[in-house]
Amino acid sequence: xxxxxxxxLVVDDEQGLCAGLQEALRREGYVVDATTDxxxxxxxxxxxxxxLVISDMKMPGISGMELMVQVRSRTRDTLFILxxxxxxxxxxxxxxxxxxxDYLSKPIDLRRLRALVEKALEFQALVAENSExxxxxxxxxxxxxxxxxxxxxxxxxxxxxxVANSEVTVLIEGESGTGKEIVARSVHAQSARSDRPFVSVNxxxxxxxxxxxxxxxxxxxxxxxxxxxxxxRFQLADGGTLFLDEIGDLSPKGQxxxxxxxxxxxxxxxxxxxxxxxxxRVIAATNKNLQEAARAGKFREDLWYxxxxxxxxxxxxxxxxxxxxxxxxxxxxxxxxxxxxxRKRLSADCVQLFQRFPWPGNVRQLRNLIERxxxxxxESVVEVQHLPDFxxxxxxxxxxxxxxxxxxxxxxxxMLIRQTLTHVTSNREEAARALGISRRALQYKLKEYGLxx
Length: 453
What we know:
It is a single chain. The protein is of the alpha/beta class. It has four domains: about 5-105, Rossmann fold, CATH 3.40.50; about 130-315, 3-Layer(aba) Sandwich (Rossmann fold); about 320-395, Orthogonal Bundle (Helicase, Ruva Protein, domain 3); about 410-450, Orthogonal Bundle (Arc Repressor Mutant, subunit A), CATH 1.10.10. It has helices at about 15-25, 40-45, 65-75, 90-95, 110-125, 130-140, 150-165, 180-190, 210-215, 235, 250-265, 290-295, 300-305, 325-340, 350-355, 360-375, 390, 410-425, 430-435, 440-450; strands at about 5-10, 30-35, 50-55, 80-85, 100-105, 170-175, 200, 240-245, 265, 275, 280-285, 310-315, 345, 380. It has a five-stranded parallel sheet, sandwiched between helices. It has a five-stranded parallel sheet with strand order 7-8-11-6-12. Helix 3 links the parallel strand 3 (about 50-55) and strand 4 (about 80-85). Helix 2 (about 40-45) packs parallel to helix 3 (about 65-75). The longest helix is centred in the first third of the chain and has 17 residues, at about 110-125. The radius of gyration is 24 Å and the shape is globular. About 35% of the residues are buried.
């Protein structure tokens, strides 16, 4: 994500707060406009395309909710974060039902705002923005936003479809950039809870001292600065889905608190005595191996068992190289529309190079590169010379994989075939020649090892 290309609009009738948020976000590198007039904000949003609007909910004339509805009726991809000093559970839930990405109570915690802005923009960049793909996400019959026809992605899409209409807890595992939040939102969109809130919490972005209040809310006077009751994320997600991202970074105390509410379905707000019950489905995600963390005593084993009732493993992009042409095509369409540039395509040499490259940043890295090419490449066909140095200098002969002594020969053969198809060529006839076997023998091995598309 190139922050210098991100456009944010701040709207608040308090001049000091408006200017302060604008300056804070500008220091982060974003392009930020600000206005104290909601009508002026609507005019600006009609003239320019904003990635994100941060707006007060209660303003003279047009309310933040009305502003959001009008702006998103024209540009559905613009995300909204709404702020208010008059926070109630009802208004927060209603805001997210109407399409807000998230909701903040005043006084604004700048650290939390920065983390929320980054998370919202990351989500926006991950989601394919053309209308066809959005309809697929919203339709229970089409979980195809999880773009890919490879065996690993077909397995993910099938599992998403199976678990969506159940109430089980889901744990999504995978490397950073593989699209874990997309999977969580797809499960929610295909479930019976789809018309209820989807609330996201980044566990890694919250200090241990703030986590309990963030999840369960607090009552007025619970601690210094608690000037009013504030609902927690569990209350905001009541009836819907709570997505706990980076669950592996949860503190030991946070793990214990979460386990209790998962088992009892009830909690008390910080400083409160009333027992609150909610109906929330929890989906968690992590880029860590929680089983190993539990064995090492760094993650509660009972919480791990409770979370991974249904695990979904997101494959890294290097293990689904055959999906890259389809991903590239969709990203080209998405960003050509976003930046009002003509459509582009990759040359055959570029496609092969893309399929050989290991993509350590996964789909996120691929998406960012395609956006860069849409902006910087003037040709309609992207050739190897148009690519950045890290791709042009990539030497496929350096690709290796490790085999531990004692590994069964069948497993070594399986790894070798997969690595050849991933990093050398996806063409099976060429792969068979490289491996020194016939195409028929390769086809048999693919079937035997479950590597067929």
